[in-house]
Structures are given as C-alpha cells and as structure tokens.
Amino acid sequence: MKKPESYIFETGVEDFETQVIEASRHIPVLVDFWADWCPPCTMLTPILERVVHAYGGGFLLAKVEVDEGHNMKLAGRYGMRGFPTVLLFKDGEEKARFHSAKPEHFVREFLAEHGVAAA
Questions:
Q1: Could you tell me what percent of the chain has a pLDDT over 90?
Q2: Are 7 and 62 in contact (CB under 8 A)?
Q3: Is 55 a catalytic residue?
Q4: Strand 85-90's sheet: what is its strand order?
Q5: pLDDT for the residue numbered 119
Q6: CA 37 to CA 68: how far, in whole Å?
Q7: Which of 41, 75, 87, 88 is the catalytic position?
Q8: Distance between CA 118 and CA 115 in Å, rounded?
Q9: What is residue 65's three-state secondary structure?
Q10: What tens digit of pLDDT does each residue of 35-82 get?
Q11: Residue 41 catalytic?
Q12: At 58, is the secondary structure helix, strand, or coil?
C-alpha cells in the first residue's frame, strides 16, 4: 500500500504523459487544474485532498498549476475555459470532468458515478 503522501502529486506538461495518462491505465487519476489567483481553486483543494485520503489509494490526485512553466499549454490541450477544472483519467483517457469549486458530497458522487471506489 502506498503512503498517503504519495496519493497527491504535482505534475506538468513535461511529466503529464507518464504521471497521468500512463498511470491511469493502472489506477484512476483525478487531475486538478488550478491557479494561485483563483479563489474557487483554493476552496476546492482541501476537499479533493480529504477525499483522496479517505479513498486510501482508490485513485491518485494530480495537481497542475496552470501558471507554472508551459502548463497553460496543457490546459489548452484539454480545452479549459476556466479554473478550477478537474479531469478524471482512466485507462489512458479522459472519462469525465467538472468545473468550479464543489462540495465534498459532489466529488464523492462524481467519483462513484464513474466507477472510482475506495481501496
């Protein structure tokens, strides 16, 4: 079993293919596209972190800071129109997404709806 710290990681355009796309072939990966200047982003972060720890390895949480390096290109690749935007990857593909800050029950229902269960 992974240590809880390893459920959450930062990624970007350079590592996205390996850390998200390839990893999602083995375990679902939820990707949070966020920015420091975005109040809804800072509201959503602790909710996503609580849920990933509660699921105990049922999925991973990748964080993409859109203002760092070339990460805005990655956001553009996935057609982001605003932040936060959260994408769910399974089997190497985007399966679903949601936008804006959401309450914890919404995040749990979103995961359940797409077949993501606690480990």
A1: 90
A2: no
A3: no
A4: 8-10, 60-65, 29-34, 85-90, 93-99
A5: 81
A6: 12
A7: 41
A8: 10
A9: strand
A10: 999 999 999 999 999 999 999 989 999 999 999 889 999 999 999 989
A11: yes
A12: coil
